[in-house]
Write a structure and sequence with these properties.
2 domains, alpha+beta, two-stranded antiparallel sheet
């Protein structure tokens, strides 16, 4: 188990160690978004059915959405120290001004 009590598993196969146990969806705590859970169920199901012939899968871009006010979304890997940062304020954004919600900031890390 890891520090959060989740079994250690391979994120490309969703297999727990060498066992016939596979994790998918919210249970693994990595990508709790519906389309990611659907993909994980496909990968874990195929690997469980083919066990012990387990195949690695190629993951999609990481996506996290937090239902907050204002909304928050994270796409891709976390920023690194070698990256470049750009920002854009909503203070003077036309549609946001018309909707009277011209607050917030978009940060882009590349």
């Amino acid at each position: 188990m890891d520090g959060r009590g989740i079994p250690k598993f391979d994120s490309t196969t969703l297999q727990c160690g060498n066992s016939p146990i596979f994790l998918a969806g919210d249970v693994d705590g990595q990508r709790p978004v519906l389309h990611e859970a659907s993909f994980e169920v496909f990968v874990a199901g195929c690997n469980a059915a083919a066990f012990p012939l387990v195949h690695k899968s190629r993951r999609t871009v990481a996506l996290s959405i937090m239902f907050t006010d204002p909304p928050l979304a994270v796409v891709g890997a976390p920023p690194s120290e070698d990256g470049v940062t750009g920002t854009a304020s909503n203070a003077d954004q036309g549609r946001a001004r018309v909707d009277a919600c011209n607050t917030g900031l978009v940060s882009i890390y590349a």
